């Protein structure tokens, strides 16, 4: 088996070893390099280490070689980007290193939020949508007494980072639940309860399960339902779906709908496009944000303050766009205000705490020139009130 693999690998090396590497079929990335057969064998060893670490196996030798090729390109991109020295953050290998960028987006982010679903809270316009109240007025500075920094995770008010798993794009449910857990813990002065994303995925008819959803809809659903269950009552059970039946979620386990662990009274939008008001809101509790994850470097983020700049064909371009709102996270803290040099948001993601990011968190550049915030994070922040 192994010798078959090695000989077919050598064949592949002979055929493709002199081709330049481009890490994405759509040309998203372009770190060029010529691999030698020796490099390939070392890389294959490294790939086997990576597979073992992530418990990965592939059904056929062909699939394994295809995954190896993608892994190799990603690793070369990661190393070249880190060596270049112009990124403000570091990339690294993680559970996504054998995926192309397109596959990564399809599996781990949601469909884009429709622009018509966004609350319009532009300058001076105040609109009340659904059950939510938009904070009024212009983008005002945060009050002076807002702390210089806060991290609700360090204060014991954030549950452990969860993991959406391999196929479910319900980031909206994870961000909504994270903020409900923290809001409850802060309001009641207790440890955060671990609440159920699966209940939202299966039962919240305002949203679309593993495909797309909005935190505001999720809060509204919890309000109407009268509460949300503990995760221990209604656990996450990512269904093993093939791409063919990805359209099917679980059916709602209605018997559990009355097992209310936490109730929310209402929810509130932070004034859009205003990082100052977002800071004032996060000073009081974690806030859920939409995020444009459509950036090749985001897939490989390891540590540091992410500023949305990434390499494209050896040029540093960016920052990230703000119009593919395909991801959601909970902002659980920040550091720095005023004229500080390094200011960042602390975001809790839902891709596990082992491999991606800083134990599942990412620091995002705060107070950027674009009023929409880095990668659109200030476009529509929202939080629940318990
Ligand atoms: C939810 O979990 C908490 C903590 O374990 C427990 O105290 C509470 O009774 C549970 N609530 C429900 C409705 O299951």
Automatic annotation (TrEMBL):
GO biological process terms, semicolon-separated: proteolysis
Stored Gene3D superfamilies: Cysteine proteinases
Keyword Signal in annotation: yes
All residue ranges annotated as the Peptidase C1A papain C-terminal domain in the record: 146-385
PROSITE patterns in alphabetical order: THIOL_PROTEASE_HIS (PS00639)
GO molecular function, one term: cysteine-type peptidase activity
Pfam families in the cross-refs: Inhibitor_I29 (PF08246), Peptidase_C1 (PF00112)
Record domain Cathepsin propeptide inhibitor: where: 47-104
Leader peptide range in chain numbering: 1-24
Entry annotated with the keyword Signal: yes
CDD domains for the chain: Peptidase_C1A
Keywords: Disulfide bond, Signal
Origin: domain of life: Eukaryota
Family to which the UniProt record says this protein belongs: Belongs to the peptidase C1 family.
PANTHER family named in the record: CYSTEINE PROTEASE FAMILY C1-RELATED (PTHR12411)
Protein name, per record: Uncharacterized protein
């Amino acid at each position: 088996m192994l010798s078959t693999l090695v000989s077919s690998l050598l064949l592949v090396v002979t055929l493709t070893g002199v081709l330049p590497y481009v890490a994405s079929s759509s040309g998203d990335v372009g770190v060029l390099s010529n691999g030698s057969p020796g490099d390939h064998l070392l890389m294959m060893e490294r790939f086997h280490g990576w597979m073992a670490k992530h418990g990965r196996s592939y059904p056929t030798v062909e699939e394994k070689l295809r995954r190896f090729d993608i892994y190799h390109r990603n690793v070369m991109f990661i190393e070249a980007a880190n060596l270049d020295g112009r990124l403000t953050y570091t990339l690294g290998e993680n559970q996504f290193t054998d995926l192309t960028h397109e596959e990564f987006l399809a599996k781990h982010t949601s469909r884009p939020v429709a622009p018509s679903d966004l609350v319009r809270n532009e300058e001076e316009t105040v609109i009340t949508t659904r059950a939510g109240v938009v904070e009024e007025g212009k983008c005002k500075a945060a009050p002076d007494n807002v702390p210089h920094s806060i991290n609700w995770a360090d204060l014991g008010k954030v549950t452990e980072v969860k993991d959406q798993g391999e196929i479910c794009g319900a980031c909206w449910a994870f961000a909504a639940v994270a903020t409900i857990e923290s809001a409850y813990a802060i309001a009641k002065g207790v440890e955060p309860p671990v609440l159920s994303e699966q209940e939202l995925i299966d039962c919240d008819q305002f949203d679309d399960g593993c495909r797309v959803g909005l935190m505001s809809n999720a809060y509204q659903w919890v309000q109407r339902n009268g509460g949300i269950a503990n995760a221990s009552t209604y656990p996450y059970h990512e269904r093993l779906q093939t791409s063919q039946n990805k359209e099917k979620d679980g059916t709602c386990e209605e018997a559990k709908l009355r097992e209310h662990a936490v109730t929310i009274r209402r929810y509130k939008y932070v004034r859009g496009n205003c990082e100052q008001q977002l800071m004032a809101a996060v000073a009081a509790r974690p806030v859920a944000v939409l995020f444009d994850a459509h950036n090749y470097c985001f897939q490989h983020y390891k540590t540091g303050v992410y500023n949305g700049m990434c390499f494209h064909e050896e040029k540093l371009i960016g920052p990230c766009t703000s119009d593919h709102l395909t991801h959601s996270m909970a902002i659980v803290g920040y550091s720095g205000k005023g004229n500080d040099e390094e200011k960042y948001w602390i975001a809790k993601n839902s891709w596990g705490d082992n491999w991606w990011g800083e134990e599942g968190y990412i620091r995002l550049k705060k107070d950027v020139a674009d009023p929409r915030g880095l990668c659109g994070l200030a476009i529509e922040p929202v939080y629940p009130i318990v």
